[in-house]
Protein 1
Amino acid sequence: MREVRRTVPAPEDLGTAVIGVPTGSDLELDLRLEAVMEGILVSGSVRGRAVGECVRCLEEVVEDVDAPVQELYVYPERARAAVEDGDDEEEIRELDGDLVDVEPVVRDAVVPALPFRPVCSPDCPGLCPQCGARLADPENADHSHEVLDPRWAELDRIKDVLDDRKES
């Protein structure tokens, strides 16, 4: 068994449309490599920092990510046998000589660990649907709009006409 601790730059597109680990930022790999009958078992964790936007108010969200990793890298002859037995070729991770490509495994671990709908705080009120003001800002504490239901607009117009007649 061999333990490996490395800090590596994050690959491109490590995330979703609303949150992800910025390209080139540090990812900490804490891995154990164990020789098993079929190949090399890689297990451990990946840690990094994801940056995105709050889905309610569009403010920046920073999330620490700590994702577990476990994947079996098989010897080439075992991979061929597994494919012949009907296993999906894309799901089999194969050793390349003495090398292990952990990028696909890191991607498979980190992306599902990211929040699906990141928020800046659990009670974020979001944006005003009328004007787009951020409702969490202190200056918008008593923010409101007088919104008239368009279905009542004609009655409101008639009321204004009657009020004008009474005044004249």
Protein 2
Amino acid sequence: MIKGAVFDMDGLMFDTEKLVYQAWQRVMDSNGYDYDFEIYKKTVGRRTAETRKFYEELYGGEFDYQRLRNEANVFFRDDIETNGVPLKKGLVNILEYLKTHNIKIALATSTSSATAMGLLEKANVKQYFDRFVCGNMVKNGKPHPEVFLTAAKELCLKPESCIALEDSINGIKSAYNAGMKPLMVPDLLEPTEEIKPMLFALCKDLDEAIEYFKQ
């Protein structure tokens, strides 16, 4: 019996990955770095420390990750302030369904607490969640299972009684390794042959995902 739902955030709940990419592209272009969407996709689902390491290995130790990240964050926040948080199709519908059917809801994101809480509040969906586990609250990032194991513990549920909703490859691996039922709603990344056997379900949007909580 499914008793819990554990949500990733960027790319799954909010259509923010494209905004982050656009911000990084502007910053990298203005600083003279060779950068494109394929490079950005390799950072999806990673925590800050892991992304920093990836860029430093790619561009060299002199790469000023923190400065460039700060610049990209300014562009990202300006976009959100101007246009609001872009919600993924079906987000409010699935949260309403879970709440009315007494299924516990947790967040399990690689994003920091400050950024995640700000986006949840601005999107007016924070009130649906029972617990929050963010990137700065765990030692290991996805694909390590720690974030999902912590979310299950916070909900006082066994991992196997939870569906984990994810859009990224690392997120699916993390949920699978935690013993949850990984449900993928692809955003920038389609499921690979490696992760297809790990999937509990593959859905085109969050409206379709509701059906798997009715079983």
Protein 3
Amino acid sequence: MLFILGSSIGFFLFIIYDINSIKWQSKFVNHFFYIGCFLIITNTLGAIYRFSDAIEMNMISQVVWISIILSFLILLIFTLFFALPFDSTYVKNDIGRKTYTKGMYALCRHPGVIWFAGLYFSLFFWMGNPNILYLAIVLNLMNFVYIIFQDLWTFPQTFIDYEQYKETTPFIIPNCTSIHRMITTIKSQAGE
């Protein structure tokens, strides 16, 4: 399916962006991150548009699923673009900085993966189309490969304290300690 291919190219561009942030530091290649996001978003929207005629749900069920989808989307956008300092994360490519260990990033090292999976599998449950399921499976597998690459290669070279962060914070699946730490740091940030 063309939508899977287009989105997959987006993840490939993310990996090139990560390599660039460590090795080449080209301003041109920095744009690959935004192009990758654009490809994933437009191909997902294209798939939704293409297969939306298959939705066979009553209005209440549709409202519930759309609410769930929007919740995962908001959590994903917040986690990737607002829970972190944007400039130092996506623009400056500073090597030798410290990890951000508050809020969502106290929950686990890759919280966006949880929201990404929730978003795509919720889209499938809402639409009920096998093509959306294939898209969800492939994109989540690609996202998983990407975060393994980040966890093993990119982040240890980017953050001076990444090994310590790995010792205190789960990879993807939160635990009781990390949930408590997330809640505590969010409360302390709200009080500031």
Protein 4
Amino acid sequence: MFKLINLFCLILFLSACVGRDLEITAKFDPREAAFVKNGGSARLSGQAFMRQNGGGVVTCAGEEVNLFPATKYATERFAKIYGDVSGGRINVFQGVSLKGVPPEYLEYRRVATCDAEGDFEFSGVAPGTYYVQSRVVWMVPNSYFPEGGSVAKRVTLRSGQRLRVLLN
């Protein structure tokens, strides 16, 4: 019976992995995001991590870090995902699907990868306001369910600025 319950929970979890759908009323305008492709002299670095209930720290090691221009579309999307226009934190069960996301939206972002310590860096960044976002996910022994989630923060960069952010 215990195995049957675990199997049911696993199926339920996998069906939830698809993520919730969001309805975004703002339309994505590539002209509003075009500055991200211009390049610039700013540098954004940082670290993404979450603290486990037992006090251990898990980083975003090996995960993508996304840098999205804070367009009207992105601002509405991040506000609906994280509950605040400045970003925040969600758990793995609060994820969202990519259903309805304009393909161009993903083309107007920059992507980096977290190193083993959870550090990341974007160099040659154009001045502007952005959302920086990454996942921090781990498995616990004897569990079928991942833990952790996603973290994001809204940042503004000036020309030549070097900014370090913590996503947690």
